[in-house]
Write the structure tokens for this entry.
Amino acid sequence: EAGVAQSPRYKIIEKRQSVAFWCNPISGHATLYWYQQILGQGPKLLIQFQNNGVVDDSQLPKDRFSAERLKGVDSTLKIQPAKLEDSAVYLCASSLSGLTDTQYFGPGTRLTVL
Amino acid sequence: GENVEQHPSTLSVQEGDSAVIKCTYSDSASNYFPWYKQELGKGPQLIIDIRSNVGEKKDQRIAVTLNKTAKHFSLHITETQPEDSAVYFCAAWDTGGFKTIFGAGTRLFVKA
């Protein structure tokens, strides 16, 4: 079974630039999550989709971050404009259906904002 | 909302010894507690989880215990091996926010 795919794996940008991350969840998984993991900390949920709909985006900085899940499958997370404090690993995860089902994580995208 | 505290932040053990990582949570209604292992350059991977209807769960060298009264849960790894070296995260289900809240992580070093 293929795992969660993410791209790119690494990205370096300057502050005020924009960046986009892509995630392809495990086939058949209805729930998709985007987490931000700052160095030395645990993952923090940014947004959670169930199929096409947003379940929770309370911790997404909506003035600069946006996310969408096309046709209930792939998802993109965008930051515009980026700030220095956005430097982190952005993890995508998916689960079969229920919110307490096992979450399977992708390898993450390491973002460095200079 | 849910708050998860994890200790210690770093743990070093000799190969073959046991390792224990402890977590506390604040949401008394929380009913799901997963543990994740994260190796360098990889995403977290679920290693074991426990739901509130049981007090202990084992899977080979790994066990988790849950004390709902005290609102704490622990991960026990026996007969540690160098490949157990990684960062371990505890997590708890936030019943108000319908999301998983992670602890800050424990970096485990197993010395050969």
